[in-house]
Amino acid sequence: MMMEFDRFDPPPAKFPGNVPAIRVQANADHWFAAAEALHAAHAHFLSLWGADDRDRDNCFRIYGAWLLPDRVVVIENALRDVANPHYASLAPLFPAASRMQRAVYDLLGISTEEPDMRRWLRHDGWPESVFPLRRAFDGNQQYPVTSEPYPFVQVEGDGVHEIPVGPVHAGTIEPGHFRFSVVGEKVLRLEERLGYTHKGVGKRFQAMPQAEGHWLAARLCGDSAVAFSWAWCAALESITDTLCPPRAIALRALALEHERMANHLGDLGALGNDAGFAFGLTQFSRLKEDLLRTGAALFGERYLMNFILPGGVARDLPAHASALLSAQYLKLEESVAGLRSIYDEHAGVQDRFRETGRLDHAPAEQLGALGLVARASGIQCDLRVNMPWPPYDGLQVQPALQTSGDVAARAQVRFDEVFASLRLCRALLADLSAGPVHAAVPIAEPGSMGIGLIEGWRGPVLIVLEAGPEGSIRNCHAHDPSWQNWPLLEYAIIGNLVPDFPLINKSFNLSYSGQDG
Amino acid sequence: MFDVLSRIMRTGILTETPAEDAQNSSAITDLQTDLRSILGRALCIRQVDAGSCNGCELEINALNNPYYNLEGLGIKFVASPRHADLLLVTGPVSVNMEEALKRTYDATPDPKFVVALGDCADCGCVFGRSYASRGGVANLIPVDYTILGCPPEPAAILKGILQVARSKHRAS
Fold it and tell me: Is A344 within a domain?
C-alpha cells in the first residue's frame, strides 16, 4: 500500500498514535486517486472531517481516514480556494462518507459536488450562513430556533403510507427521527434523521485546555466513556511522548472490557425483552447491575466517566480487587452460559431473532460496516486483533465472528464477546504488575497531531487531536462507528415488519450522541 | 421451560428497599399510600432526552432492573407525555431538541412536575451554553426539582423522584 503513496510530495509520514498510522498530504488531484487506491485495497473507511486553517496557511483542510489490515491511513487535502472550498466526494466509493460530508458542510461550509447535500447536523438552530467550526465564529453565539421543513425522500405508490417516529421516542432512549414508508406491515424504506443531540463538541474542545479534554471525551457518548476517554488520552500521549505505566495500561483495558461486558449484558437482556421474553431482561439487567456495582466498589464509579486521564488512570484498585473480581467473573460466566443455552433453545426467541434484520456480508462490506455489526456479518475487523495496542499486543484476542448477519448473529457476537472479555479480564488481573498508575504529561508542541483509536464495544472509536499553543486544543475530531452503522440499519430493515424494528434497532444499538457530536 | 423456572428460583427476589426508607419496614406501603393519595394511581413518568450523552439514560433504565424494581413502588415510565404526571428531562438541551422539549412539555397535562436529571440538565455542565446547546433545562421550561450527578446513581434518581412526589403532596 505504501507504494501507492510514494509519488506524493511530501512522502507519507508516521502519524503518532496508539496504533500504526501514516499521514499522507495530497493535493486536489491526488485526493480522489488515493481514495480509489484505498478502495481497491479493500480499506475500511473510518472517518471524514475538516478544519479551518485560514489563520495559519490560508486554506481549509479536509481529512479522510481509512483502516487497512495493519495500519491507519490519513489523507489530508489542503483546499486553497478559500472563497469556495470544495473537494471531490468520496461517497461514490465509500457510501458512508455521504452523511459525514453533509456534516462537514454544516460545520465548516466545505462542499462537494454530491447531489444529496441536505443539512445533517444543522436543523433549525443556527442560520444557513453560519459555519460554527470556522475559527472566527464565536461558539457562545446563540440564535433563535426557526422552523425549516426537512425534505424526506417520498415513497409513492398504491397503499404506501408513512409512519413518522421521534425525535422523542416511546422508551428511555436517545432522540432521533425515523421515517418509515410502509405497505401494510412491511417496511419499504426507512429514512433516519439524526443530529438532535448535536452539542457542538468540536467547538467546545477548541475552548478547552489539553489537560481537561478527556473530561469532555468521556461524555461524547456515555455508554462508551472508557473507549472515548482512552482514545483521547492515547492521542495526547502520542504527541507528548508520554509513557503510561504498565499498571495503568492494564487497568484501562480492564475498564474497557468491563464497559464492553456491561453494554453487551444490557443489550442481551433488551433483545430478549423486545422478543417478548421478559425473563431475559430481568436476568441480564441483574447481571449488568452486579457488574456495575462491583465496578463502583473497585473503580470508584458505576460508569467510568472520570477514570481514564492523560498519563494513566485516576485511581488504583484496592487490594482485595483481584479476589472480588475473580469470584464475580466465575458467577457471571456460569450465569451467562446458562442464559445462552436458554436463549438458544427457546423457540419463540429464536423465531424472532433468526432471519430478522439481515445484513449480508456483501452489502455490509460495500456500505462500510464497522465493529460488532460488521463481525456479525462475517467481516473480520477488531482492532484488538488487527493492530493490538498495549496491553492487547500481549493478550492474543480471539475475534468473535458470525456470518448470518441477522439479529441472532448480533446476539451471538455479544455472547462470544462477553466470554472473550472475561478471559481477557482474568489474564489482565493475573499479570497485573505493581507500580504507579499515573505519569506526568507535558504540554504538546503546537501544531502536532495525534491519533487515538480504541476498539470500544460498538467498534472503533477515533480521536484525532491537534495541539494549539500553550496547552490549548486547536482541533479535536471525534468519531463514533455509529456513523457507519446507522445507514446499515436503514438497509437491514427493508422488507421486515414494522413491529420488528425495535428488535432490529436494539440489535444494532447505535449511538445518537456519539454520531451527533 | 424447566431451565427458566429453575433459574428464576435460584435467582430469588433481589428487590431492595429504597435506601432512605431502609429503617422503616412499612416504607414501601407508605410510599404506595402516598402516591395513591397524591395521584389516585401510579406515578407516570415520561422521560425526555433533550440532548444527553446517554449516560443518564443508562441509569434511568437501571431503575427497572430487579434491584430497584421501580414499578413495584407504583412508579412507571409511559410512552406518551399525554399519559405523564412527571417529565424526567436529561440534557443539556440541544438547540435541535428545543422545540421537541417544549412541545412535549405542552403535551403533558396539568398539574405536572418537571425533574431535571444530571449535571448537564442542571447547568449544561461540560457542554455549557453555545450555538448548539441551551445549557440547563430550566432555561427552557419550569423545573421543580434537580437531581445532580454525572450520571446520578439509580438510588439518587429514585430518592429525587420520591422527594418531588412527596413535596407536591405536602404542598397540596
Answer: yes
Beta carbons of A196 and B97 less than 8 Å apart: yes
Among the candidates A51, A79, A112, a domain finishes at A112
What span, in angstroms and rounded, lies between the C-alpha atoms of B138 and A33?
51
Which residues from B are below 8 Å from A283, CB to CB? 7, 11
- CA–CA separation, A111 vs A113, rounded Å? 7
CATH number at residue A8: 3.30.460.80
What residues make up the domain containing A326? 243-382+392-440
Confidence check: pLDDT of A358 > 60: yes
At residue A146, what are phi and psi to the nearest 5 degrees?
-105, 180
Q: Are residues A252 and A105 in the same domain?
A: no
Taking the Cβ of residue A467 and every Cβ of chain B, the question of whether any pair is shorter than 8 Å is answered with: no
Give me the mean pLDDT over the A19-47 stretch: 94
Q: Write out chain B residues lying below 8 Å of A143, CB-based.
A: 95, 131
Contact A303 B95 (CB under 8 A): no
Structural domain includes residue A43: yes
| Percent residues over pLDDT 90 in chain A | 96
Mean pLDDT along residues B34-61: 89
Residues in chain B closer than 8 A to A286 (CB atoms): 11, 14, 65-67
Give B53→chain A minimum CA distance, Å: 5
Contact (CB<8Å) A223/B54:
yes
Least confident of A309-313, A456-460, B6-10: B6-10
HSE, side-chain direction, 13 A CA sphere, residue A177: 18
3-state helix/strand/coil string of A391-438: CHHHCCCCCCCCCCCCHHHHHHHHHHHHHHHHHHHHHHHHCCCCCCCE
| pLDDT confidence bin for A265, thresholds 50/70/90 | very high
- In whole angstroms, give the CA distance from residue A210 to residue A448: 12
Fold type of domain B2-171 = Rossmann fold (3.40.50)
* Confidence grade of residue A440 (pLDDT, cut at 50, 70, 90): very high
Partners of A219 on chain B (C-beta within 8 Å) are 53, 55, 125-127, 150
Among the candidates A81, A112, A143, a domain finishes at A112
What backbone phi and psi angles, to 5 degrees, belong to A308?
A: -95, 125
Contact flag B133-A303 (C-beta cutoff 8 Å)? no
Q: Between A137, A196, A342, which is nearest B96 by CB?
A: A196
How many domains, in total, are found in chain A? Answer: 2
pLDDT at A111: 96
Domain range list for chain B: 2-171
Report the 3 state secondary structure along B97-163.
HHHHHHHHHHHCCCCCEEEEECHHHHHCHHHCECCCEECCHHHCCCCCEEECCCCCCHHHHHHHHHH
What is the rounded end-to-end Cα distance, in angstroms, of chain B? 50
Region A452-458 average pLDDT = 98
Contact flag A197-B128 (C-beta cutoff 8 Å): no
The domain spanning residue A347 has which CATH number?
1.10.645.10
If contacts are CB pairs under 8 Å, which of residues 116-155 in chain B contact chain A? 125-134, 150-151, 153
Model confidence at A279: pLDDT above 90: yes
Q: Strand A177-183 relative to strand A160-165: parallel, antiparallel, unpaired? A: antiparallel
Kindly report the average pLDDT of chain A as a whole number: 96
Residue B1, pLDDT score: 81
- Domain assignment present for residue A177? The answer is no
Q: What is the ipTM of this complex?
A: 0.95
